[in-house]
Write a structure and sequence with these properties.
GO molecular function: ATP binding
Keywords: ATP-binding, Cell membrane, Membrane, Nucleotide-binding, Sugar transport, Translocase, Transport
Shape: globular
Distance between the termini: 33 Å
Structural class: alpha/beta
Largest sheet: 6 strands, mixed
Bound molecules: adenosine-5'-diphosphate
Helix content: 25-40%
Strand order of the largest sheet: 6-7-8-3-9-10
Radius of gyration: 18 Å
Protein name: Multiple sugar transport system ATP-binding protein
Length: about 230
């Protein structure tokens, strides 16, 4: 069973040309899929429909076997990893990761166990007392991912997470995201307009153009095309 199934998804804003036009993609459990294409091709709209921040005009979105078209974002159990990481600056790394568990009124014992497990996986266990302002970009990204892991989110969604970084840091973070995603084995949808990211990060690449899915293939298949 696919982790995320998009069936003939359409999005129209007002009565204009569809921003997303009849897109169907099945994403396997643990797969890393990149949505790529030029500005305005509909990739953010598609991602926002998956998370539930935007209504679907027609088509079906199925996550973990359940149709979620009408479910609120929090009922979809997905984790959006934002470009600016959206960490709480006054809270320690520990409490930033613990935050969703605190909201869910988890016991201190459960919080501690899950935060320690996640921070070990993400190699943050030495930094639990620090504040986000004292961390590197890569460490901040990992804290954001930690917050998603403790919630047992069904998938990670990234919207151009590296676009504000300089080239060197972008390269490092790219490597780090790929490594962590493989280690965690969590289904991931990643939006970018950057060809290098698209060709190096994902298991498969979905190329969008004016709202239409042009290609859906592995980087190797795309690379070997004439
Ligand atoms: P991308 O993320 O690939 O840059 P978007 O999904 O943001 O593309 O936009 C796809 C199309 O939908 C564009 O033509 C854009 O102008 C239009 N669009 C996006 N958001 C809105 C909105 N809230 N209202 C009207 N049109 C929108
Ligand atoms: P103590 O001060 O005796 O450690 P606490 O109630 O403050 O007792 O914390 C209990 C456990 O929860 C600690 O042993 C620690 O592992 C964990 N813990 C709680 N809050 C934090 C935090 N901000 N940073 C790191 N660990 C924490």
């Amino acid at each position: 069973m696919a982790a995320i199934e998009m069936k003939n998804i359409v999005k129209k804003y007002g009565d204009g040309f569809p921003a997303v036009n009849d897109v169907s993609i099945d994403i396997a459990d643990g797969e890393f899929v990149i949505l790529v294409g030029p500005s305005g091709c509909g990739k953010s709209t598609l991602l926002r429909m998956i998370v539930g921040l935007e209504d679907i005009t027609s088509g079906e979105l199925i996550i973990g076997g359940t149709k979620v078209n009408d479910l609120a974002p929090r009922e979809r159990n997905l984790a959006m990893v934002f470009q600016n990481y959206a960490l709480y600056p006054h809270l320690s790394v520990y409490e930033n990761i613990a935050f969703p568990l605190r909201l869910a009124k988890a016991s201190d014992e459960e919080v501690d166990q899950k935060v320690r497990e996640a921070s070990k996986t993400l190699e943050l266990d030495e930094h639990l007392e620090r504040k986000p302002g004292n961390l590197s970009g890569g460490q901040r990204q990992r804290v954001a991912m930690g917050r998603a892991i403790v919630r047992d989110a069904q998938a990670f969604l990234f919207d151009e997470p590296l676009s504000n970084l300089d080239a060197k840091l972008r390269g490092q973070m790219r490597t780090e995201i790929a490594r962590l995603q493989k280690r965690l084995g969590i289904t991931t949808v990643y939006v970018t307009h950057d060809q290098t990211e698209a060709m190096t990060l994902g298991d498969r690449v979905a190329v969008l153009k004016r709202g239409v899915l042009q290609q859906l293939a592995t980087p190797r298949e795309l690379y070997e095309q004439p």
